[in-house]
Structures are given as structure tokens and as C-alpha cells.
């Protein structure tokens, strides 16, 4: 039997066995690829199996977590988590994060929820001021990474919705898909200005209300319960009275939480909290010198606040710590031990140990066998020869062993098309042919017989055992396919396996050719069978 593979890109190919039965086996290949398996000419059959692309179903969003034994358990949806927090007694503090790492630190510190800040994301992602330069796409992309890194609910900064009412609907739906539990929407014009800074202007009352109604409609259309925080910047742009009027109107339009930015005194904050007392209020404690007085959580709760944000703490201390570290490095020193966590602590924060424990559950590999040989190895070895060791062939081989991700799944159907038809349809696609070595059992490549000519009937077994005791690789390769074996096992570079095989060619039965540990501590064994 021989196989031919036509593909534009071999970088995403891998073979995954699903059953011991050939008809139940599944090959995962790129969507543009076609794999044909032809009966050997010696069997007088022209039957052709064509593996054609089958589009995978879109991924479902599943909110889950892992229990102590590693099994998946269902987790409460983010919006429901946040609403439960809003319904619980007391005031709730939420530091503002700006990337996945800062969010993980917030969660590990024991906070129940977290904010994202446009100020911090603009600074960390773009190195630019929060003046409307960050786009919707950049904000939702950053939010997606953040929400995937933690299990606590996140309230995202949605700025002014990035346009008109229709843009607001798209923004709300995008934040829902990104995993946010809540979204803050403000009434500034575009381009917006940063809170507590000069130059802020707001849209008309009517436009502000209609944009809030659009946000509520987007929530309903999505079947979500995302918490909508209505922010008005009209205190600084117009007056306290205007901000109070807008807060009432936005609540009537469907907002869940109210927020007036840059209130100038404790008295103004109290007046605000008296508006619709049963609707939660949010305070913004701008560290370092904003217009709103800094109050402790008990004082804020006494005024009537339910949520309090700290927008600059993490960003501010990070900037100062990095400046101090850079000053030390420039002076020929490294930061003192007390100023930074140890490497082990950093690894623990990032989840290295958790990763290693989970990795052990998937350490073993099951080779796909066809006719006594590993089909994946056959295709890879001949691909290296046919493609003259180019990079595509290397990617092809790496993907077979699981070092590159698999792509689309493929189903099997019968067909009678000839190879020429496939090549005519895709003339630009390289074809890699694999010929099994059965016909070469007795003769050398030049037709002569010799001590090494029978090597095609022998098999090389390559076994790698990791230093952790887990089996990394255990494959059998036709002994005639020496080309490319070092791409499978780089540690064999420089080893003259051909000479070792020559010495053992006439021996009956198996023989161990190599047994050593590589520089990484893995044990590598090669047998001639």
C-alpha cells in the first residue's frame, strides 16, 4: 500500500488513534489537505480511500473549573457571581487590573472581583495615555485574556461604547463573549477623555439614555445577565445637578449600578447615594491625587456605596518598582532579595507546578499501528527524504509526534478519482508519497543482494523514557529509513547507526544498539528487531 499527501502547509498535521479498528481511526489534518491510501499494485486493486475535510463544530463556551482530583466541575457564570456579590451585605473592594498577570495577583490576594481599567490597559498595551486611543478590539482582546486567567468575576471598562447606540450593542455583546461579568459604560463624546482630567464633554441627555437602552437590549438579545454599570462624567463637564438627573434617567433605562465620576466632596457623594437608595452605587478612589476625596471602605459604606474601585494602585506601584529595578541594574546591581519574589515564587504565581501536575495525566502516547509499522513514522521518514530535509518536512514530523497542534478533523469516504485529478485540482500543492518497504525485503536499492539488503525486513525500535520515569516515545521504524531519524531524536546526531546496524545485520533476533542518557536526563534506547 502507498499513501500520497497533498497539502499547502504540513505544519498542523498529527495522527490521533481513536480505535483499534482501521475504519474507526481518525486522522487530524489541515483543512486544505487530502490523504489518499492506495492498494499496492501487487494486490491488483484500484480502490481508493479519500480522506476529505470535515468542518468541526464551533466550540461551546463552557464555564468550568477543576476539582482537587483534576476532574472538571461546573462553575457559576461570571454575571451570576457578580450579582451574588451585589446582593451580599457590606461594601466590596475591587482593585483594577490591566493584564492577565495583575488579575491573577488580585485573585490570589483574596478579592472577590476585579475591574479592568482603560487607563491601565492603554498604558500597558500601548504605552499611551487614556485619551480614546485604545480601540474596542484591543480592549475586548485584553479582556478575553484577563477573564480566562482567573475565576473571579471581572467588570470591564467599556468606555463610551466606542460609537453610537449600535456600537454600544456590539460592545456589550463582545464583552459578554469575552467572559466579563459586568461592563462600565459612560456618557462622554468621542474621542473620550480620562476621568479626573481636563477637557471632558458629554453627549446629550437623550443620546445617553438611548445608548443605555441599547446596552440593555444587547444583554437581552445575548441571553446574558451581564451587570451594566452606568457612569456619567457630567459632574465635571456640566454640574452636580446634571449628574444626579442623568443617574436617575440611566437607572430608569435599565442600568444595574450607578457611578458618578469625579465627585468633589463627601457631601456630593452622600447626595449621590440618596438617589434610588436600593440601586447599588460605585465609588472610584483615584490614588495619588484625584478630585474625589479618598475614604476608607467603612466610610464609603456608611455613605451608601456598594462597590469601590482602586484604578491606579497596581499600575502605579508597578511603574515605581520597575523604575527602581532599572536604576539598580544600570548601576551594576540587581534588585535586592526583599524587593522581588524568588524564582520559585514567580513560578508558583504563574502556575508552573499546577501545569506539571496536570501534564502527568497526559504523559503516555498511543502509537497508531498499520501493518506492523507506525503509519505516522512511515509518512514522516519518507517526507524528510522526498522533501530534502526542508522546513515543511520538519514541521510535518513534529506535528506527527504531537509537538505542533492538530488541525481540522477528517472523515473517510470512498472514491475512484485518480491521483492525477487531485494534482490537477491543486497543482501548487507538493505531494509526499509513502511506499511501504514490503517489496524491498530481499533486495537492495540497486537490485543486488547483500548483508544489508535484507535490512528492510528489520525494524528499529526507538524508546525514550523521561527522567521523571514516564515514557516519552516508543516507536518502531523500518530499519531502511535512516534518513531523518535525528529529526525524531536530536540526541542521535553524530551517532553512526548505519555502522551499528551493519554489525548486527546478520544476527538473528533482536539486539540493543544504544542505551544512554541525553543532556536533559532522558534515557534513549535503540533496538534492532
UniProtKB/TrEMBL annotation:
It holds the Pfam family PEP_mutase. It comes from the Eukaryota. One of its GO terms (molecular function) is catalytic activity. InterPro entries: ICL/PEPM, Pyrv/PenolPyrv_kinase-like_dom, Pyrv_kinase-like_dom_sf. This is Isocitrate lyase. It comes from Rhododendron griersonianum.
Amino acid at each position: 500500500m502507498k499513501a500520497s499527501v497533498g497539502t499547502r502547509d504540513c505544519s498542523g498535521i498529527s495522527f490521533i488513534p481513536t480505535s483499534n479498528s482501521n475504519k474507526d481511526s481518525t486522522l487530524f489534518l489541515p483543512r486544505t489537505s487530502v490523504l489518499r491510501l492506495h492498494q499496492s499494485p501487487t494486490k491488483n486493486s484500484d480502490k481508493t480511500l479519500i480522506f476529505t475535510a470535515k468542518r468541526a463544530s464551533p466550540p461551546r463556551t463552557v464555564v468550568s473549573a477543576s476539582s482537587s482530583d483534576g476532574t472538571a466541575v461546573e462553575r457559576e457564570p461570571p454575571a451570576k457571581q457578580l450579582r451574588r456579590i451585589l446582593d451580599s451585605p457590606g461594601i466590596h473592594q475591587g482593585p483594577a487590573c490591566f493584564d492577565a498577570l495583575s488579575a491573577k495577583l488580585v485573585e490570589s490576594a483574596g478579592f472577590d472581583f476585579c475591574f479592568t481599567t482603560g487607563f491601565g490597559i492603554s498604558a500597558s498595551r500601548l504605552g499611551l495615555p487614556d485619551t480614546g486611543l485604545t480601540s474596542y478590539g484591543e480592549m475586548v482582546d485584553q479582556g478575553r485574556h484577563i477573564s480566562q486567567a482567573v475565576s473571579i468575576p471581572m467588570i470591564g471598562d467599556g468606555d463610551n461604547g466606542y460609537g453610537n447606540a449600535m456600537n454600544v450593542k456590539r460592545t456589550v455583546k463582545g464583552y459578554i463573549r469575552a467572559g466579563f461579568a459586568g461592563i462600565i459604560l459612560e456618557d462622554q463624546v468621542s474621542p473620550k477623555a480620562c476621568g479626573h482630567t481636563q477637557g471632558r464633554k458629554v453627549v446629550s441627555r437623550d443620546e445617553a439614555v438611548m445608548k443605555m437602552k441599547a446596552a440593555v437590549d444587547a444583554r437581552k438579545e445575548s441571553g446574558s445577565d451581564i451587570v451594566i454599570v452606568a457612569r456619567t462624567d457630567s459632574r465635571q463637564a456640566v454640574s452636580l445637578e446634571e449628574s444626579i438627573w442623568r443617574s436617575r434617567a440611566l437607572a430608569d433605562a435599565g442600568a444595574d449600578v450607578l457611578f458618578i465620576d469625579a465627585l468633589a466632596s463627601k457631601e456630593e457623594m452622600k447626595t449621590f447615594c440618596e438617589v434610588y437608595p436600593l440601586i447599588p452605587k460605585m465609588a472610584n478612589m483615584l490614588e495619588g491625587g484625584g478630585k474625589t476625596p479618598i475614604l476608607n471602605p467603612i466610610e464609603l459604606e456608611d455613605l451608601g456605596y456598594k462597590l469601590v474601585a482602586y484604578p491606579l494602585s497596581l499600575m502605579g506601584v508597578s511603574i515605581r518598582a520597575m523604575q527602581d529595578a532599572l536604576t539598580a541594574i544600570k548601576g551594576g546591581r540587581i534588585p535586592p532579595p526583599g524587593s522581588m519574589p524568588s524564582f520559585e515564587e514567580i513560578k508558583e504565581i504563574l502556575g508552573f507546578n499546577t501545569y506539571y501536575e496536570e501534564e502527568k495525566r497526559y504523559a503516555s502516547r498511543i502509537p497508531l499501528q498499520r501493518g506492523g509499522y507506525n503509519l505516522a513514522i512511515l509518512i514522516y521518514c519518507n517526507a524528510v527524504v522526498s522533501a530534502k530535509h526542508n522546513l515543511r518536512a520538519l514541521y510535518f514530523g513534529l506535528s506527527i509526534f504531537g509537538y505542533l497542534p492538530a488541525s481540522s478533523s477528517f472523515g473517510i469516504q470512498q472514491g475512484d478519482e485518480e491521483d492525477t485529478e487531485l494534482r490537477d485540482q491543486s497543482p501548487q500543492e507538493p505531494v509526499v508519497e509513502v511506499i511501504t518497504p514490503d517489496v524491498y525485503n530481499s533486495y537492495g536499492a540497486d537490485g543486488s543482494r547483500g548483508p544489508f539488503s535484507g535490512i528492510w525486513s528489520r525494524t528499529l525500535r526507538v524508546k525514550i523514557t523521561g527522567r521523571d520515569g514516564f515514557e516519552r516515545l516508543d516507536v518502531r521504524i523500518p530499519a531502511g529509513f535512516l534518513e531523518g531519524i535525528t529529526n525524531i531524536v536530536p540526541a542521535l546526531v553524530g551517532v553512526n547507526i548505519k555502522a551499528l546496524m551493519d554489525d548486527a545485520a546478520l544476527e538473528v533476533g533482536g539486539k540493543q544498539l544504544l542505551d544512554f542518557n541525553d543532556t536533559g536526563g532522558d534515557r534513549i534506547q535503540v533496538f534492532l528487531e
